[in-house]
Design brief:
Blueprint lengths: L1 E2 L6 E7 L2 H5 L2 H7 L11 H17 L3 E4 L17 E4 L2 E4 L10 H11 L4 E4 L11 E5 L2 E6 L5 H10 L6 E6 L16 E5 L2 E4 L6 H9 L3 E4 L13 E4 L2 E5 L3 H9 L3 E5 L2 H5 L10 E6 L3
Parallel strand pairs: 2-3, 5-6, 8-9, 11-12, 14-15
Antiparallel strand pairs: 1-16, 2-16, 4-5, 7-8, 10-11, 13-14
Length: 293
Amino acid sequence: MITAQSDIGFLRRVIVKHVRDAFHDQSTIQTQWSSLNYTAEPELDEAIREYETFAKILENNNCELVYQPTDDLTSLDSLYVRDSSIVTDAGVVLCNMGKPARQPEPEVMEAFYRQIGSKVLGRIEPPGKVEGGDVTWLTPKILAVGEGYRTNREGIEQLTALLRKTVDEIVTVALPHFRGPSDVLHLMSLLSPVDEGLAVVYSPLLPVTFRNLLLELEFQLLDVPQKEFDSMGSNVLSLGPGKCLVVEGSPITRRLLEKAGVEVICYKGDEISAKGRGGPTCLTRPLLRELTS
């Protein structure tokens, strides 16, 4: 079955934005990186090398890359294409970004979706806020949505209304304050489905009720250690059953995945991931996945 409503099926078609089209040039990076709360200034030439390796891994795993073109409205953060939309079998939901600097992204994505022939189902309107990094499929009919600084209650209510015919349940997950509103803390900072019944999690920041729900759904939870939370050990992109992509720097998490029977592919992400706090799920907006059961 080919579906948009999965985070674990074989990744067949995905939207990406090349780092050169998001970052433009070193001068743009110098102007924006600090105000966007990057940990340091990315170096463009190295970022391009990292990104091309990242893209080649996806292509080598039978995934079609659909490149979003450059534009003059969005910031460096537009590299993280997952956040501005949610893709379902009924169509695309355009988000309303919780980070003010990212407000132009859904409008730019709407024009792109129409260009590639994707149906736009609706949009999240103010005062509602939803970012795609707060949204993940637990099953093709159960969607988990984090409620925090980037996604609010009004946004979740709007999303629920838009998806009432295509999902059975939306689970709201209360996110912690942690490092505050300026930090990047999405639900997918804490949880990444990897395979059917298997997820990587950072349990210290998960609500007990949600963690228990995952166990009730018969997920095996691979717990990322504290020292690998900041290296984005819990941000894992499933390329399909039994295979995933992770940013370098989380060897304990890698061993946990391999012990669970998962093939782990690593990419260097010093410039494209670490400095902007966006792992492989953030760099991709899956359009189609293939389920085997």
